[in-house]
Description:
Helix content is about 20%, strand content about 25%. It has helices at about 120-130, 160-175, 180-185, 210-215, 225-230, 235-245; strands at about 10-15, 20-25, 35-40, 40-50, 60-65, 70-80, 80-90, 105-110, 135, 190, 255, 270.
Amino acid sequence: xxxxxRLVLGPVVGHTDFRSSRVWIEVAGDPADYTLRVQGAGQFxxxxxxxxGPLEFRTAIAxxxxxxxxxxxxYTVLRRGKAVADGRGTFRTMPDPGSQGxxxxxxxxxxxxxxxxxxxxxAKYIADTKPRFLLMCGDQLYLDEGGIDLFSAEKxxxxxxxxxxxxxxxxRLHWSLPETRDVLANIxxxxxxxDHDIRDGWGSSASDSPTMVGATPAAKxxxxxxxxxxxxxxxxxxxxxxxITRAPATRRIRRCLPPTMSMRPRPQxxxxxxxxxxxxxxWWC
Length: 285
């Protein structure tokens, strides 16, 4: 458990446009004690992400607004007015929507904790090329690998509360690594889930997510359709189009992506690839 003047997890920079940015944290105490100080822009309160009542995870988000377009900001997380250890970072706002400037971003997936060197290589790549944001395209971690298999445990009547706590702890183990914290605290991050965020092959059966199937009228309750729905979110083409609609109108888009067959760009996407950033088995940058 983190001390009173340390974050449990974070900060993580989230959705950022040309006027605002979000920063996420997890704390040990009351999220209401925390504020976000953005250099040159003021202070902004953190607001709990949980419903009113007893707090389960103690996560919170601060929204810094009234910012300048295409500007690099430094921020500090404060607790009762004092800077929190490991609570500093930077972000860059997006260009004005009417801009025609060059625009690039980086996409990754399949965060395997045992693989060493990928996060430092990514941090260097980001520092060198200065992409606008980071897409984490699924498998943020492997819940079905290492330690207790949380979903096999379901068969052993593990309570919902214990299962949720175990999932949260696994995220803490992954995202608390210094090299991972350094990346997430210094660039806007967008995340989607894939199968290993739950278990291997999740989404291949309609029974995996009736909510998802019900929310997609065109989907049929079959293994094939459910799998297609769950994995479309992990394809950078779909994500990039959605994000780019909020970005400056430009044809000069550069994307960096992992070397997986499902993530190859379509010709009409006008995407330019770069180089490997961490070797033949690593991320495609």
